[in-house]
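hiii, so i know i said id send this last week but things got crazy w the move. better late than never?? heres the sequnce for the chain we talked about at the cafe, plus the structure i predicted for it. fair warning i was half asleep when i ran it
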Amino acid sequence: MRIPSYIKNVNETRIEYRPPDATMNPYFGMIAMLLAGIDGIVSKIDPVKEGFGPYDKNFLEDDSIEQIHFLPRNLAEAIDALENDNDFLRRGDMISDELLEQWIKVKREEVHSISTIPHPFEYKMYFNL
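okay and structure toks below
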């Protein structure tokens, strides 16, 4: 979700739905996004105060890139983030502890399986294929 910054008229402000990765489970993904949004509203989380922008500068030309809070870069980091912050998913009994634990276990197994298989680029780099 995002609020476009190019809209200057407050009455025209809107929230845009930005779909996540197409490989996600759409049922779990939509529940998680809705619960995260509800948690932000109920907890009165201010994304600007939390350091999530908006920023009106080019961070590649500035030394202040450490101000940016990055999203997880891969599945392993996303699982770590989910393990560290998942209370919002339990609101309204939408996702049980057992489901969450099983989901994390399955995704950790996926990460392990993927990490044991050489990438095609590794073949190209090391075997001159």
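btw The chain has one domain: 10-127. thought thatd interest u
miss u guys!!
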